[in-house]
Specification:
205 residues, mainly alpha, 72% helix
Length: 205
């Protein structure tokens, strides 16, 4: 049970509320749904052990993004469609500051989702195939599997992206993935991304 007063918690939340709504709206593109997410985040904030939260704004931001992910997955499940939005769009270096912020948040969301829901081989196969149009032969060479297994990895990844998260990534893991995705999306240089994928696969083996 948190020893922080509910009044203090409300003040902390109110300072973050506008940003949380902006994040939810950009992900969901629906103001009513975004407002619902913010309310859900407030409930989570009220009921969590706030004494152990070292960075409340970061905690609330992550909570909001995860709630948005769950909302999107529920919507897709109801409409029987598979997920494929967790990929980086090309970053426009000439975009205005607000747009660059949105692009960075999108990359953070993509990294968080990929790390939480996919194994290292699935992550590599899915991103390289869906975002960068690698052939299954190229993916097989990087992941060190057969082409048939590369196809299976991509198919399995699509299904797992609408499932519950498999693990909690560390902040360092998420930052590493964000950097790799940003470099790939910004410059088209995929060497860093390939290196991250192969290192993750080796560590998980």
């Amino acid at each position: 049970m948190s020893h922080q007063s509910l009044e203090d918690a409300a003040v902390t939340f109110s300072l973050c509320r506008e940003r949380l709504f902006g994040i939810a709206f950009r992900i969901l593109n629906d103001s009513a749904a975004a407002e619902d997410i913010v309310q859900d985040a407030w409930v989570r904030w009220q009921t969590c052990d706030r004494d152990v939260v070292l960075d409340p704004p970061a905690f609330l931001t992550t909570t909001t993004k995860r709630l948005c992910i769950n909302a999107l997955q529920s919507a897709r499940a109801r409409h029987e469609t598979h997920a494929s939005p967790w990929l980086p769009d090309p970053v426009d270096p000439h975009a205005d500051p607000q747009r660059r912020i949105e692009q960075c948040e999108a990359l953070e969301l993509a990294a968080l989702t990929l790390l939480e829901r996919l194994s290292p081989p699935e992550r590599a196969a899915y991103v390289l195939r869906e975002a960068f149009d690698y052939s299954y032969a190229e993916i097989a060479g990087i992941v060190e599997v057969t082409q048939a297994n590369a196809r299976q990895l991509v198919s399995r990844a699509r299904k797992r992206l609408v499932a519950e998260r498999r693990e909690e990534p560390t902040g360092a893991e998420q930052k590493r993935m964000v950097v790799a995705l940003t470099v790939a999306a910004h410059s088209g240089d995929l060497a860093t991304l390939e290196t991250v994928f192969t290192e993750d696969i080796a560590m998980a083996a």
